[in-house]
Amino acid sequence: MNNQYEQEHQRDLQRLRGLRPIDDDFMRCLFKDNLPLAQLVLRIMTGISDLVLLREETQKDLKRLVGARSICIDVFGEDSRGRKYDLEVQRADSGARPKRARYHSSAMDIEYLNAGQEFEDLPETYTIFVTENDVFEQDLGFYPVERMNLSTGKPFEDGEHILYINGQYQGEDELGRLMHDFRCSSPDDMFINELAERTRYFKENPEGVEYMCKAMEDMRNEALERGLERGKEEKLVENLKSLMITLKLTAQQALDALQVPMDQQSKYLSRL
Predict the structure, then answer these.
(1) Which helix (H) or strand (E) holds 158?
(2) Which of 188, 204, 220 is the last residue of a domain?
């Protein structure tokens, strides 16, 4: 067992050497409890030079999506003007599809408007997707998406902003330097000192290396648990279908017969 653990530990150290800020798991570690770095990156990405970040959180679960598809935000932020930020890394092009951005933006609206509040109280929101590839293939650093009134040609001004950042961008401006650093595995190759020093901490400082190895171990365990849970779900779906066929039950009747909790029924209904 000790030998197996040591082998896995050495593999983790090798993986750690190759990690880059654009790798979402590593990015969340870089930003965790580091408000100044999150503020700097958001200023560069949004172009809001006076953005003052008041709070920042990694892997933030949106709590109000009961019964709907859940969302865990990579990096969440709120600034001094009440604007909310959802920063996501999307390595695969499929993860950057327009409807995913729409859903993330809508989820923040639900999260931050309480019962009894006026619609005008909805905060201004920024949904930011950092993509490894240039998904719009226009060789631009960023692609802002805004609603507009097609009849008047004027902005709709609903306070919703969706922004795609091109991870392949290599311009000489601030965003180009940031995207260069996001693709670097070595802090020595980075331009932005704050990002380089944070990266160096997790790759070279013994405490940072230990934290990353523990994080990678936790991720493996979580993936294993998710796999086991999926196995249970597949078995339940099979049992539900068997009941429906054998006893000629509707999907709802089968769910009730197996006492599937109400808050989970929509998930299984979609698979039946």
Answers:
(1) none
(2) 204
User: In this structure, is the dihedral angle defined by the CA atoms of residues 194, 200, 205 and 210, taken in order, positive or negative?
Assistant: positive
Are residues 241 and 154 both part of a single domain? no
Q: How long is the chain?
A: 272
Residue 43 lies in a domain: yes
How does pLDDT run across 69-122, given as a tens digit for each residue? Answer: 888 899 999 999 999 999 999 888 888 999 999 999 999 999 999 989 999 999
Are 263 and 136 found together in one domain?
A: no
Q: How many Cβ atoms from other residues are within 10 Å of residue 82's Cβ?
A: 11
Q: Provide the Cα torsion 120, 123, 124, 128; round to 10°.
A: -140
Note whether residue 161 is domain-resident. yes
- Alpha-carbon gap, residue 131 to 182, rounded angstroms: 11
Whole-number pLDDT of residue 224? 63
Torsion of CA 108, 114, 115, 116, to 10 degrees: -120
Taking alpha carbons only, the member of 187, 182, 185 closest to residue 198 is 187
The residue segments making up the domain with residue 240 are 231-269
pTM: 0.80
198 and 98 fall within a common domain = yes
Structure tokens at 85: 């930020």
